[in-house]
Specification:
Length: about 325
């Protein structure tokens, strides 16, 4: 039995080695990017682990022995899941490995803007010892924190924000307006979250319906002096419109971890906005989430090889096919 790591830019592979050794599976490490290369290195493997490599119908056709594709992460967009399902190949991901880390990061970005820490740090280093550039700051307990998308990460962020003293509300099309989540967060409509929040934190997937959800029109409806936090996907906001709202002061600040183009281009208008706190798609990262995603991705496909049900699978129909 063999698992081939098709592509992965991680520095260590101990987690995968431990899992495969414990299950009596040989582990082979490669690093390729094209369909032809994937076919070449994966020949003979019962399962493959991928980071960004393409697993198309053509790849699957060329690898008839393949039982499982494991993705280091949440998204499976480089895998033709439909083609995999019709060929009985399990596609396994790790949907929740970064929930605590991303929600911590959303809170870190929020507090950095709400308390002005990043901007004040720069001022102190520049020899300025005053508060004027960050004024006005308001006590957290006077602020309303709105969560767009009360899924795994949004729900965790909401609870952490409430623990800090914010009044927290959220919106999610899957939840009924006027009800409360299991954690006791009030569910309101999109417009209410958008127009009444002092901090708006985004936790939605990137879909056609969420692309540029926060555009010029939406920004204009946000409270003057509010703060935008984005740790979900860059294209959920219109970057040019957000930069303009930061420049005009309509947005007091923004905490942004994800961008329409990554890495953030050197000429991005966001780099000229001192009230924006920017991080390089770092929310998911902690040593713990890093080893968790590796171990769980390997465990899931090892389970499939051994005929066991994996903890997470994007196409559970294949398990019913026998
Ligand atoms: N920055 C990072 O490092 C990082 C790491 C992991 C995940 N993410 C991103 O975080 C986001 C949330 O991930 P998750 O695991 O919580 O996903 P999830 O699927 O658990 O939750 C997403 C929620 O958004 C809701 N939603 C969809 N459209 C909406 C809309 N128009 N308005 C309000 N809510 C809407 C869905 O109903 C769902 O409940 C995703 O975009 C994911 O890609 C970022």
């Amino acid at each position: 039995m063999r698992i081939t790591i098709v592509d992965c830019d991680h520095e260590t592979f101990e987690a995968e080695q431990e899992v495969s050794a414990a299950r009596g599976i040989e582990l082979v490490r490669e690093h390729v990017t094209t369909e032809d290369e994937v076919i070449r290195v994966a020949r003979g493997a019962e399962a493959i682990l991928i980071q960004y490599a393409p697993v198309t119908a053509a790849v699957l056709d060329a690898l008839p022995q393949l039982k499982a594709v494991g993705r280091y992460g949440v998204g499976v967009d480089t895998v033709d899941v439909e083609a995999a399902t019709s060929r009985g190949v399990a596609v396994c991901n790790v949907p929740d490995y970064g929930v605590q880390d991303v929600s911590d990061h959303a809170i870190a970005l929020t507090m950095s803007v709400v308390r002005g820490t990043a901007q004040l740090d720069r001022l102190v280093r520049d020899g300025e010892y005053g508060l004027v550039p960050v004024k006005p700051l308001h006590r957290v307990s006077t602020l309303r924190f709105g969560v767009l998308g009360l899924g795994r990460i949004g729900a965790a962020t909401a609870v952490k924000a409430r623990a800090l003293g914010f009044t927290v509300v959220g919106s999610d099309p899957q939840l009924e307006i006027g009800t409360y989540t299991a954690d006791g967060i009030e569910v309101v409509d999109f417009e209410t979250v958008l127009t009444t929040s002092d901090v708006l934190s985004l936790h939605v997937p990137l879909l056609e319906t969420t692309h540029h959800l926060i555009d010029e029109g939406a920004l204009a409806r946000m409270k003057a002096g509010s703060v935008l936090v984005n740790t979900c996907r860059g294209a959920v906001i219109d970057t040019a419109a957000v930069a303009a709202a930061l420049r005009s002061g309509h947005l007091k600040g923004a905490g942004l971890d994800v961008f329409e183009q990554e890495p953030l281009p050197a000429d991005s208008p966001l780099l000229e906005c001192p009230s924006a706190v920017l991080t390089p798609h770092a929310s998911w990262y902690s040593e713990e989430s890093y080893s968790e995603v590796k171990r769980r991705a390997a465990e899931a496909i090892a389970d499939v090889i051994h005929g066991q049900r994996p903890r997470d699978i994007a196409n559970p129909e294949v398990l019913e096919q026998g």
